[in-house]
Amino acid sequence: MRCNNSTETMGDGNNTSGRGIAANNTTSSSNSEKPEWLHQYNLLGKIGEGTYGLVFLARIKSPTNRGKCIAIKKFKQSKDGDGVSPTAIREIMLLREISHENVVKLVNVHINHADMSLYLAFDYAEYDLYEIIRHHRDKVTHAINQYTVKSLLWQLLNGLNYLHSNWIIHRDLKPSNILVMGDGDEQGVVKIADFGLARIYQAPLKPLSENGVVVTIWYRAPELLLGAKHYTSAVDMWAVGCIFAELLTLKPLFQGAEAKSTPNPFQLDQLDKIFKILGHPTLEKWPTLVNLPHWQSDMQHIQAHKYDNAGLHSFVHLSAKSPAFDLLSKMLEYDPQKRITAAQALEHEYFRIEPLPGRNALVPSQHGEKIVNYPTRPVDQNTDFEGTTSIQPSQPVSSGNAVAGNMGGAHSGRNGSVNRPVPPPPMQRMPQGMMAYNFPSQAGVGGGMNPGGMPMQRNLAAQPHQQQQLRRKDPGMGMTGYPPQQKSRRL
Amino acid sequence: MADFQTSTHKAKWIFSPQELVEKYKAANQRAIQTLDKYGTTQMEVDADGSLSYPESIARDNADKHPRPKPLNIEEEQFMRVFYENKLREVCSAFYFPNKIQATALIYFKRFYLQWSVMEHQPKHIMLTCVYAACKIEENHVSAEELGKGISQDHQMILNYEMIVYQSLEFDLIVYAPYRSVEGFVNDMEEYCGAKDEENLILKDLQETARMEVDKIMLTDAPHLFPPGQLALAALRSANEKHRVLNFEGYLKSILTRQNLEHTISQLIESLNSIDTWVSKYKFPTEKDMKHINRKLKSCWGHSSHDDSKKREKKRHKSHKSSNEIQN
């Protein structure tokens, strides 16, 4: 399903949706069990599912923002007695502090007080690298054009450089987390998404296994596979290298079979796949290798030198002397200390030669190459908001009430299953249900931002939102930071 | 996040003294209005986390008993100060890292920029802030464990958790001055070209400054000044004791090296003002607290004789246990 919003400007939804929420709140009927905030959206279907929860596609109903699409990420409720999901809280906390053209934008947070779950609303990006790569591999059977590969990579690095310079490590970069905007002002712009595992580096970082999460091992850096205790931003650069190769060949570079026996098993096959292509790591090239637990213990004889010749260039069909190969091999450097950083990569020669990277990665401006019509991320229309199949398939656009009603039904239906005491009969109950929390981007220095979205404040809630509209920056301003195209063309 | 310059902390949570006064006034006024309207000020948090006012206190009762008197702004301040100290006691009882205490304290202070202590019981909010800080700093402690440790009902913490996040506007990354103190001391080592002996004095300086920061954090100064300035004020006070370096010379060197637009006189003015906050800090006397608690109880509609006795007993108990913790 395509969410067509050609008349809309992407990236400025905050303002008007804020007004919509405020209006909703003031007119809310207290006896309704429907989640208040859902009335502003038409739910189109499910677009993603992971260990964290589900992602839904929805369209804003308000006339000022008609057709604008939003991805709503619903976090699974955490263990009973554990309160609000720590993953959700951490993702929100990081996203609140960051703002960059190549990082996904958090537009809104909705709260379902009934089960303490959080719903994060993002600007919707129609494509992701997973679908783009798959489309080329399975449908069009030709490589992604060079301009697109380079532009995607450049923007990915640009976003990552921003994160790393703000001391954030993403820790879970993979094609499905790299989104690309569809039609609109930001068409073809890369957005790094899914900050559920992201961390600030100064904080002591616990191994992923302790967070009880499962992440794909294909993009995992060798130091982590060998049991390194400390994460550095270099782990993200390794993943970028893997993604770069995958954009070139349309196949995952290191497609190891995942060992799943214990909570955090040693991933022998994954390491073997890496060694086969890059050659065996040596202490000479990677001195700190000797300190890594799994290397040291050598339980499964990984020190045994099986592979000599690095065959990376032939694997990715690049000349060993090409700038593209040079950059790739620097990203896939074994020693994390020597691995190229995002900032260095952005300065690499690869980005200074034709075709130069551009802002719209999907439509090369001057190459006259055929534009590939990528499939958008699949939308499962048979899923309702609770992740179960709904009886009534949701319908687009005009039948908003039906959708909301359907979802409301699902919501009220779960009261029985929620493992909390049933609240006593309401006394002077404030209109409850789901409350919206609309973010001012940087607004409210003394702007009377009292408990936003709190029921008692409902009629006041409109003020800060209006205020913040004035402060909002023009979304079209984000062009800065691109390589100086004119200048380098002359070179 | 390391970059304070682009943080929500800098953009949204540093106020002018006027703004701060306005905020306290607004919360106080709102609670007073509520008291007029409903005869009680306390918001009830239901098991599902939604807020509601309890039923108005029956009118016929109101004829016999005088209307409860609301807390004034100074009394609210005392109440916050009292529980900020309690918050520290709880954190040290659990041997939490200093960072958690600092984060929880900032959460607590910010929460009561949004609400009056008459609206939400500071004891519950204090515990919820500690719980939230643990979650954010990845030092997870279950609510049950936290509640048990201080014999409080942990369900309260869970009920309040979301409201705390909301009131903090989900701005959960906060900057305490402790790290800035470390940073400045490292810088001083270089600035002084310190040798081993002097390094030891600098360690003493750092330790004293840390304790100065502890004092500063209990005032309103964290709402008014960035953490770097709070740290410098603490270091300056510490330096008066240890006399390690010419502080003004050091301040000048920071300004020139960092190319900041501050003038030295502006910076010194800020540091003086932070010192003033510390010197006028007042901890409520036992008598103050008794009076305030009595008023608060009537605001919350806990007027029944038996009920208040029971509560009084409980309160004494918790006092005792926290005193024991201290000793």
Concise account of the structure shown:
With 491 residues, chain A is α+β, with helices and mostly antiparallel strands. Chain A is built from 14 helices and 12 strands.
Percentage beta strand of chain B? under 5%
H/I helix tally of chain B? 16
Query: Radius of gyration of chain B over alpha carbons?
Result: 22 Å
Q: Figure out the total of helices of chain A.
A: 14
| Known CATH architecture of the largest domain in chain B | Orthogonal Bundle
Q: Can you tell me the overall shape of chain B?
A: globular
Shape of chain A: globular
CATH homologous superfamily grouping of the largest domain in chain A: Transferase(Phosphotransferase) domain 1
User: Main interface pair?
Assistant: A-B, 58 and 55 residues
CATH class of the largest domain in chain B: Mainly Alpha
CATH fold call of the largest domain in chain B? Cyclin A, domain 1
Give helix % range of chain B: over 70%
Give the terminus-to-terminus CA distance of chain B. Answer: 36 Å
Total domain count of chain B: 2
Low confidence ranges of chain A: 4-32, 203-214, 387-435, 440-491
Judging by the overall fold, what is the CATH architecture of the largest domain in chain A?
Orthogonal Bundle
GO molecular function (chain A): ATP binding; cyclin-dependent protein serine/threonine kinase activity; RNA polymerase II CTD heptapeptide repeat kinase activity
Keywords (chain A): ATP-binding, Kinase, Nucleotide-binding, Phosphoprotein, Serine/threonine-protein kinase, Transferase
Organism (chain A): Durio zibethinus (Durian)
Protein name (chain A): Cyclin-dependent kinase E-1
